[in-house]
From TrEMBL:
Principal localisation: membrane
Transmembrane feature ranges: 7-33, 39-60, 67-88
Keywords: Membrane, Transmembrane, Transmembrane helix
Span of domain ABC transmembrane type-1: 20-90
Native organism: Schistosoma mattheei
The organism's place on the tree of life at top rank: Eukaryota
Membrane topology: Multi-pass membrane protein
Subcellular location: Membrane
Keyword Membrane among record annotations: yes
Gene Ontology CC annotation, any one: membrane
Any GO BP: transmembrane transport
UniProt-recorded name of the protein: ABC transmembrane type-1 domain-containing protein
């Protein structure tokens, strides 16, 4: 009887092991892969948002530079006017 049990044990455990592996693979497919897909979606979304921000900054950069240039010109003009004022009145 014991010898028969020892002989039958691999015949019982191998299909059980295969079933266990199949169940683990199913769990992996049902749980981890959707999580990975969600993570991938989040990463893609963040990358798209970063790209949009960079594009917006690139679009706004000439405007900002023009405003700075205008400010610089106005400042230069004020300095020239102040110089003229001081030269004229002293």
């Amino acid at each position: 009887m014991i010898l028969l049990l020892i002989l039958l044990l691999p015949l019982i455990t191998i299909p059980l092991l295969i079933l266990l592996i199949i169940l683990l693979l199913l769990i992996l497919l049902l749980v981890i892969i959707p999580l990975l897909l969600l993570l991938l979606r989040l990463i893609i979304l963040v990358l798209i948002l970063l790209l949009l921000v960079i594009l917006l900054l690139l679009l706004l950069l000439p405007i900002i530079l023009l405003l700075l240039l205008l400010l610089l010109i106005l400042l230069l003009l004020m300095v020239i006017l102040l110089l003229i004022y001081y030269i004229y009145y002293y």
